[in-house]
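chain below, 160 aa
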Amino acid sequence: MKLFTRKDQTEDRAETAAEVTPTQTVSAFLTAFGKRDVEATLSVVDDAVRVDIHPTGLREGGSADLRAFLTETFTAFPDLLVTVKNLIETGSVVTAELKVEGTQAAGYLGAINQEKHLDVDAAWRFTVAGDRITAVDAYWCQNQLYRRLAVKRLDQISLV
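prediction:
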């Protein structure tokens, strides 16, 4: 009589995925985002993710686009601080209300480095399947971001 049986890794992963809530998956993403760790951030993202970062004009992007955005953000703000204000789970969708802050250390989204402090409120919406994020939609006020980075005109990026 066997008391213990060994499961293969596929069964373990399926069992783990069933136990992980969408909020836990998104929390893992946001924790890694706050630590400025691209690989850990993307570790919970599906390879076929759909990414829309509305203020930047990115629509129907993929994993490579998300990696590029994260890398640019972490490079531009090496002291990045991400504060999660609220997480709202509705079925497989989790909405995160965030405050993102940091001091600019490199060009970012077309604004040259002025070493300005940035603090922007943002809302990110994640769609989760199992333990993987399958869609990311990010929103923030781009005008607020540009004001914080001392951009005077939006038609030709210049300094205040």
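The chain has a mean pLDDT of 81. The chain is about 30% helix and 35% strand.
thats it, cya
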